[in-house]
UniProtKB/TrEMBL annotation:
May be involved in recombinational repair of damaged DNA. The keyword Acyltransferase does not apply. PANTHER family: DNA REPAIR PROTEIN RECN. This is DNA repair protein RecN. Residues 1-508 form the RecF/RecN/SMC N-terminal domain. Pfam families: SMC_N. The keyword DNA damage applies.
Amino acid sequence: MLTSIAISNFAIVDTLDLEFKTGMTVISGETGAGKSIMVDALSLCLGGRTDATVVRHGEKKADISATFDITQYPHVFNWLEERDLDQDQHCILRRVISKEGRSKAYINGRPCTLADLKEAGSHLVDIHGQHEHQSLLKKSAQRQQVDEFGQLTELAKQVSQQYSVWRQLREALAAQQNRSSEQDAKIQLLAYQSQELEQLDLKEGEIIELENEQAFLANIADSQQKAYQVSGLLIDSDEGTVCSLLNQAVQSASQIAPATKELEEALEMMNAALIQAQEAADSLHHYQDTLEQNPERLSEIEQRLTDIYDTARKHKVLPEALLILRESVDTELALLQGSEETIDQLKESEERAYETLTALATTLTEKRMAAKDLLARQVEEQIHGLGMPHARFFIDCQPLNQVSANGFEDIEYMIASNPGQPAQPLRKVASGGELSRISLGIQVVTAHTSVIPTLVFDEVDVGISGGIAEVVGRMLRSVGKRGQVFCVTHLAQVAAQGNQHLRVSKQVANEATSSQVSQLQDTERTQEIARLLGGLELTEQTLAHAKEMLGNVHLQ
């Protein structure tokens, strides 16, 4: 449910912070005071369209945030958790609109797309009043409402899932059965490529091994010469070698007297150096013995590398990617070369999937027929009591040519508002006031199955008065018992039914206009009900009538 809303610099609102309770909240006020501003702001938080005109004159941006308690609505929490947007048991929707018309959206403080904001909002609030905000006009929403009323949501989900399974199998079968000449050409090309790559038979890590061996064989002569030169410098020349010079140094140092600690350390280091130089010379001799030029092997390696590089260039891939290419080619070739046995298996699977689908869809149709007739009768009873005594409401189920993800039928709400008129789709014939009342009737009937916690009715009482208005008020209060209802109204009979009453007023100060919202208590509420009954001039009679109306509500 909606627990609070914070609005700043929106339209004629400077700053506004409101907290809400469960039940029915009434919003009233004089004409032009901005009764619908809170509804409009909430609509933006739900992803509604906007432009720069909503930003208060002289300000840089409008900022609106709505906080919802989702403790009792695990499906909303799961939706947030799937998108890593969860935050305890609350959902905070925020919309910021700049004076240039740009907007940013946030869910629980994290930036999100407008589409995500809309989807989150659709789980939390349903606004009734203006056509563009009405989910009731969408056939998909009407079908969902029928399924929720008949407790068929899980069965409808099974039909949708089974339809996806069957369609995938059907498409796979069609692809196998309708192989085109282009596919045949593709098979020939892949077969040639597969054979070519198979003949190349490149092994994992082979390229690096070949390149290392090629570098070694190509540099043997140079390595031999340099090893010989180094060996000569160390020990293998007649004079002036490192070893001979170190030996002379050791002999000369040994004759120095007196022999000190530093001298002994120097002699140890020179002896160690002499030993290391001799060992290095031995290692070089061993290395020279391993060096053997092999032009035949070098030629063989270079040809192998040439074949690998040429094949890679031909297929426009890096040499290292040839192994992946071979696997990809073989996989694609195997898929395209589906045998008749594969086609038979696919056909059998497709037929079984279709049988399961039609069985589920048939069951869904049978249960929908019963649910939609019962729902239509109950809704018609409700709207008869809402000032539309001659209206006929029924739910049309048009059979489809073939089964769909939604079953065997297309569902649409139909209405004939007046005697003698043919029934037409609700989206085509209902006026704003009629649509609001029909919507109210549906919500009252489906209140026990609806999963949307907050309902907003904007001017649902347009065109009605007297006893009908009291019926509307009682209906709204009844719906509010299961969650939360907001109602923008100008009728005392409706306003009196509220559990909470907010009054919108317009203030002018320092040549600036602003809208204020205050929560009414006791005397203030009685005065507001009296104002709605009798205008600006309050009399004892209207005050007494208002007090009586509020008293009667408490007795219900």
